[in-house]
Amino acid sequence: MAGFEADFQGSGQKGRFDALCAGAPAGLQDGVCTPGHRGDNTFDPALPVTFNLTQKLDWFGTVRGRLGVAVTPRVLVYGTGGLAYGRVSTAGSVSAINVGGFPGADGGTFTPVAASFSSSTTKVGWTAGAGIEGAFADNWSARLEYLYVDLGTVSGTLATPVIALSGAPLVVGYRSHVTDNILRFGVNYRFSGT
User: In terms of C-beta density within 10 A (0-12 exposed, 13-18 middle, 19 or more buried), how is residue 34 classed?
Assistant: First the structure.
């Protein structure tokens, strides 16, 4: 048995990342949270950078083919696969304290700084899964279905007002591979008796 199916649904699936990144001690090239970058913060490891990132799959849909085998006259086992699409929203913030001058007995300035960002994008990917559907009464059937959805990667960068050890603005970046595992149960009614 072969068929074609399309669906659309809201999601609300969220992911969150919070980090408290201590500054790099004097002489080190790498910070705790930013390997390859010259320091997370200014001059003092006691003045950390706070980084928060939240991602959400707002909604998604699929357009799939379905191919199955009737294992009994009333039970169908099937595989399904095809196109997936969805909207991914990303929001984040970075905060720290910039140090100016020479801290210590002769003075210095401590300036709190922060930046935030948000974006959303519609991604296209693929889906695959399997299910079982069985008739339990005239015109009525129920199904249990598993879908794996892969929408690829979402990434971005932000130049912050935080001044790194190199004297340049600290740049934070993110890169996420957006996937979802869905298990759903459905009840179907067929309007014709055949």
Answer: buried
* CB contact at 8 A, 122 and 89: no
Q: Say how far apart CA 114 and CA 76 lie, in whole Å.
A: 56
DSSP-derived 3-state class of residue 68: strand
pTM over 0.90: no
Query: How long a stretch of residues is the chain?
Result: 194
Question: What residues contact residue 86 under an 8 Å CB cut-off, 6+ apart?
Answer: 11, 57, 58, 59, 60, 61, 122, 123, 125, 149, 151, 178
pLDDT score for 37: 42
Mean pLDDT of 162-169: 74
Give all strands (DSSP E) within 22-108, no chain letters.
49-72, 75-100
Sheet of 169-189, strands arranged across: 2-21, 49-72, 75-100, 109-137, 140-163, 169-189
Is the CB of residue 60 less than 8 Å from the CB of residue 180? yes
Task: Residue 151: name the closest of 56, 17, 54 by CA.
Answer: 56
pLDDT digits (tens, 9 = 90+) for 102-136: 655 566 677 888 888 899 999 999 999 999 999 99
